[in-house]
Amino acid sequence: MRKWIYTPLIFAGLLFFLGNIISISYISNFVDGSLESVSTWFVYPMFSGLLKATLWISFYILLFYIIFSIFSIISSPFNLFLAESLCEKKNFSIAAELKVLKKIKLFFFLLKVSLKRLFIFSILGAVFFVLSFLPVVSVFSNFAIMWIISLDSMDYVMELKAMPLIKRLKFSFTFFTFFLGLSSFLSLSFLIPGALLIAFPFIVLASTEYFMENL
Q1: Which of 71, 99, 112, 163 has a CA between 20 and 30 Å from the CA of residue 52?
Q2: Torsion of CA 100, 206, 181, 17, to 10 degrees
Q3: From CA 215, how far away is CA 197, in angstroms rounded?
Q4: Phi and psi of 119, rounded to 5°?
Q5: Longest dimension (CA), the chain
Q6: Side-chain half-sphere CA neighbours of 103 within 13 A
Q7: Under a CB-based contact definition with an 8 Å cutoff, are residues 11 and 73 in contact?
Q8: What whole-number distance in Å separates Cα of residue 193 and Cα of residue 86?
């Protein structure tokens, strides 16, 4: 099981390094350019600080979400193996037809799963990103993005159980307190850059065990 944990950490380190380069080089330019476009508004002097803080947070969240999406595609096969290994170790039943190691076209199967998950979550993430430009709503929209990531951590075992999307969403609302706590923890990860990428394999393990015990 350890190899499925350590392998994604290598990709996490590389993405974190590239993410820092991008953030230093481009986010400042994005924010300055956006502020310049509204600098002629008469309310600008009163709200310039709030606008700059909101834009910085929004662009940082977007950059983080893009990095996490790339990380999710790369690490998805390993996380799926990780979820399956834990299920087998704990004697949790999974859908026989979805046993990962028995797939003939394993790579294409996992790639399909990753892209499907990315497509669904990216649509939701884009909506919340647009909402994040509203100063008050931004707090809730950014938290909603963390909710999506917390659901993504449990999506691997849900895939192994062949659970439809509607039931996955229903499960997240049924166990609202768990996802609320996990989303709050993920939000705190911003205090330590790169912490979420490093901790995500362990979050997948915890989410997998919680799901199987409460199914």
Answers
A1: 71
A2: -70
A3: 27
A4: -60, -45
A5: 65
A6: 18
A7: no
A8: 28
| Token digits of residue 133 | 């430009």
Cβ 56 vs Cβ 31: under 8 Å: yes
User: Looking at the chain, how many residues does it have?
Assistant: 215
- Could you tell me the two tokens for 134? 């509203």
Measure the CA angle with vertex 179, ends 119 and 56; round to 5°: 65
AA letter at 197: L
Report d(CA 112, CA 118) in Å as an integer.
Answer: 10
* Structural contact between residues 49 and 124, judged by C-beta atoms closer than 8 angstroms: no
204 vs 69: CA distance, rounded Å = 15
| CA-angle at 127, arms to 185 and 70, nearest 5° | 60
Please give the single-letter amino acid code of residue 10. I
Task: Look up the pTM and report it.
Answer: 0.70
Q: Mean pLDDT for the chain?
A: 73
Cα separation, 207 vs 213, whole angstroms: 10
Q: Which residues of the chain have pLDDT under 70?
A: 1-13, 15-55, 58, 95-115, 117-118, 121, 125-126, 128-139, 190, 193
Domains of the chain: total = 1
41-96 pLDDT, tens digit each: 554 555 666 666 666 776 777 777 777 777 777 777 788 888 888 888 888 877 65
Give the domain range for residue 97.
Answer: 2-214
